[in-house]
Design goal:
This protein is mostly helical. The chain contains 2 helices and 2 strands. The chain has one domain.
Length: 192
């Protein structure tokens, strides 16, 4: 029913309200003269109120239990969600640590590989230098022998007197040393 309807009833009181009314009635009773006893004038009203309270109490207790159960379920749900969040955070942190560890290992591996490559390049350069030095030394020996052979040949050539050629042998000869009788003639390369 809507509050604007003509048949609006007030909401039923709760147990606490009923019990407060009983307390007020009992506090408002008068003591009998020359006695510590009290006279309860509205005994029926008190009994009705207590009966109403006893009827309301199970419903309110049931609601309170339901609210406690809902609260416990909500707390349990929040606890599970909190644990899930903590677990997710833990996993994320572990992944981040693993990534950091992977990056650190990759950097160490890269440094190690670069150092190995430098060592290998240094070794290959030294081997190449040694190889070139050996070849140059062998070439030097060959050149030295060749120079000695050339020097010996020149010395031998310079120590041999030139044959005397008569004018009759010189007739068909040209300046290059060709012609009849010039095969055994001395050729001086310095005269060119």
């Amino acid at each position: 029913m809507n509050p604007g309807d003509g048949d609006a009833r007030p909401a039923p009181p709760d147990t606490e309200t009923v019990l407060r009314r009983v307390i007020e009635i009992i506090q408002g009773t008068r003591t009998l003269p020359l006695s510590s006893s009290v006279k309860l004038d509205n005994r029926d009203e008190v009994l009705d109120l207590l009966e109403d309270a006893s009827k309301l109490l199970p419903e309110e207790t049931r609601q309170a239990r339901w609210m406690l159960k809902e609260r416990e379920e909500l707390l349990a749900k929040m606890q599970r969600e909190g644990e899930d969040i903590v677990q997710a955070a833990r996993l994320q942190a572990e992944r981040m640590v693993q990534r950091t560890e992977i990056v650190r290992e990759a950097q160490q591996t890269a440094r190690r590989l670069v150092e190995q490559a430098r060592d290998e390049a240094r070794r290959l350069r030294l081997e190449a230098e040694d190889y070139c030095d050996q070849k140059l030394a062998a070439f030097e020996v060959v050149l030295d022998r060749t120079l000695k052979t050339v020097a010996a040949g020149r010395e031998k050539l310079s120590g041999t007197p030139a044959p005397i050629v008569g004018p009759d042998l010189m007739e068909g000869a040209d300046l290059a040393g060709e012609g009849p009788g010039m095969e055994d003639a001395f050729f001086d390369q310095d005269s060119l």
